[in-house]
Amino acid sequence: xxxxxxxxxxxxxxxxxKVMIALANQLKSLQYEVVVIAKDKGVLRxxxxxxxxxxxxxxxxxRSSLFFLKRILQKYKVDCLISGPDFxxxxxxxxxMFSRKKVKLIITQHCYFNIETKRLGIHGRxxxxxxxxxxxxxDVVVAVSDGVKNMLKQMGVPAEKIIRIYNPxxxxxISKMACDNIDMDETFDKYIVYVGRLSYVKNVLLLIxxxxxxxxxxxxxxxxxxxxxxxxxxxxxxVKRRGLSENVLFTGSMINxxxxxxxxxxxxxxxxxESFGNIVVEAMFLNVTVVSTQTAGVNxxxxxxxxxxxxxxxxxxxxxxxxxxxxxxxxxxxxxxRIRANYFDANFIINEYISLL
Length: 357
Description:
The protein has 357 residues and is of the alpha/beta class.
């Protein structure tokens, strides 16, 4: 069988990392030789199958791992390299350019070059330039949504090299993890949940403001915020300022949020931008009604199914609050949620990747 390498930053909590782990596990279960090249640290490490070999980047930063990656590709006689997100893609392309024996290179694009990358300063400005300069040298560019595919075409990536493959979600693993016991304060019997980074683009401040309005009309449900990030302190301060400390719980990041999602009455995703939205599909699979801002990625997940409550405003907490109030009393049909979620099952989507190898 072919040897497949996957190159990504680490096993820290993140959507890209979950996708890469799911791919590695699926490929290994299909008897491919699989090598993961990443920093061997992070809570998601436990999700990777024990028989998948990991080559540790150690203290190397992604941007300085070019020649290390080149050596690993040669040492393991890699046939195909799958990388993501942006920096690993750039390094993978250059490592392949400098190698005598080329590997088949599949790079994956997981985000838009918009709000979030613009906030990265010089790196945010150079990313689009590097995409135009390098991406056409990959064999295949996988876009995780049609929106991302269209963005790449507009940036000059040859259309014939781009293929849209939705993120594979490992539902068998989620089913097992969702059955774990949870240690929850008994006062949090009924709650709304958010899961994700606490960063500007995730727009969690809007959710807190909307929840404050929600709480004025419905005191039954509390708010559980799972995740961490640079906005954590500011968000906690906002909760305290509004006198909601007894009603809003911050848990920090966790390897297994699924029992908490499964028990929730509602999941809210208030993001300014989402290229896909793994957590939305995961919640739907667990029969949890979802309220989301109308980002391009979540719009694609919803499709024509009306399985998600979509919010047109990214800044009006009143609009979000009203839809949350309605959704709580009008949950979506669990059968509809599960049917739509299964469209993104890793067992099916892996075949789209296999066709590229």
